[in-house]
Each structure stands twice: as structure tokens, then as C-alpha cells.
TrEMBL record:
Gene3D superfamilies: Winged helix-like DNA-binding domain superfamily/Winged helix DNA-binding domain (1.10.10.10). GO terms for biological process: regulation of DNA-templated transcription. One of its GO terms (molecular function) is DNA binding. It comes from the Bacteria. This is Bacterial regulatory protein, luxR family. Residues 1-55 form the HTH luxR-type domain. SMART domains: HTH_LUXR (SM00421). InterPro entries: Sig_transdc_resp-reg_C-effctor (IPR016032), Tscrpt_reg_LuxR_C (IPR000792), WH-like_DNA-bd_sf (IPR036388).
Amino acid sequence: MQQVLHCQLEGDSDTQIAARLDLSRHTVNHYTKQIYRHFGVHARATLLARWLSRRWR
């Protein structure tokens, strides 16, 4: 999940993440939902904004 998060924050699409990490798109989508739930967001842009505003590493 951390690798998926990292790729999302770099701006990769789910398809790009799947290819980059050798995962299925279904798996990437599942991880994305878990990440969104964890951070309390509903969109990738919101996730990025929250990440940047809190300066998480």
C-alpha cells in the first residue's frame, strides 16, 4: 500500500501504478480505497493536498 500511495503522490494513474508495481488494476483500486479511508478523503487531489499541507514524509 505504501508503494501505491507513493505512486499516487507522484501523479501516476491506477493503470500506470499497476504496470509499475506489477499489480492488477483491481488490487491498485482496492489499495486506493483503503488509503482514502485511512486519510479520510474521497479523491486523489484531496489526498495530495492533505499530504502537502501536513508535510508527511
